[in-house]
Amino acid sequence: MASLGPWVGVPPDLLRFIRGVCTAWRSALPAAAPLLLTVSGPDAPRHRQIQPGQLVSASFLMAGRSFHLSELPTGGEFVGSSNGWIAVDPICPGIFLLNPTSGEGFDLFPLRNDDDEPVLKVVFAPNPRPTTTPPWRSAPRACSPTRDMRWTVMDVAMAEQRDKLADLVYDAGGGKVYCVTAHGDVHVFHVPGCRRRRPRVAPLHANRAGGLFAPPYDTASKLTGAKSIFLSGGSLHQAWRNTTIAFSSMTPGGGRFSMAKDEIVVLKYDPERRPCWDALADLGGRSVFVGKNNPVVLRPEDASGVRPNCVYWIDERSRFQPMVFDMATITSTPHPFDAEAPGPARRPLCWFFLNDKISH
């Protein structure tokens, strides 16, 4: 490293960002820092709609530095971010993937079917190509590419009639996509390594005897409006957020369980116990970034500005405001970035990582 000369004085966060466009740096530097992706222009999105020509920027959590990336070549609905790429659904002809650091982009083959349901989120592997991307829709359905450049659409059998898919996480190492429903149920989408095999989707809980959640979380599963799913320490976790006014319910022991607005409860999956999901007091010092991005778990030592035992989320109901829920104080507060960077012509979209695969 001594031969790098002027590079020695460059801030570490900037070096981490350079690794996204400079191959020589990628293997020499630690995991990429979390970034907040924003879109600016005369019509910066108030929701997930983005317009062609808008400028994509990335901001570090600390120091308030922002870097301009690429202009959007196409408009549509923002539907995902993973491994340094973002996904836009332009409605026709198909989903467009863009690497905003390099400017590379390509269209996936058309996804539309007769029902014309919108795509709400897309996850994909590192270095995605048109045949490696499994998206999903708002209805109980999952999609996977086939060898003949078409999509296999699979119905997901819901345990309850009004349930629907809420979030998903792609486990590249296991070749699986875990999908959580609005009621906290989990389905596993198996992505075959061999393209001759058909993908399949199955419930995680084949045996529901004994229930999935102990009281009072069996009630909270129906009352919390936002569900996220992520992997941490090799185990599945869920994060449930109360999106409405504070609520309170009676517990079997005669006590009361309450959740304030924007309060989050995190549960861990243990297949050996019943009920198999149990609430956690903390994340063992880790923190998770959830939203339209593929969820990423970090420790404070992974990147500057990351606090321990926090859930970083994006408030899509309020101008995509970046938020932090602290499990120690049980409160959600706006991320400090929000006070300085976004404005009328600049809106956050999602958390952004050059590399989703961070092992602990």
CATH structural fold name: Neuraminidase
Q: Point out poorly predicted stretches.
A: 1-5
Shape: globular
Cα gyration radius (Å): 20 Å
The main β sheet shows up as: 5 strands, antiparallel
In DSSP terms (H or I, runs of 4 or more residues), the helix count works out at 4
Q: What share of residues are in beta strands?
A: 35-45%
How many structural domains in the coordinates? 1
Write down how many β-strands occur, each being a DSSP E stretch of 2 or more residues: 28
User: Distance between the terminal alpha carbons, to the nearest Å?
Assistant: 26 Å
Q: Overall pLDDT, averaged? A: 78
Strands in their spatial order, largest beta sheet: 2-5-6-7-8
The CATH architecture assignment turns out to be 6 Propeller
CATH class: Mainly Beta
**Fraction of residues in helix:** under 10%
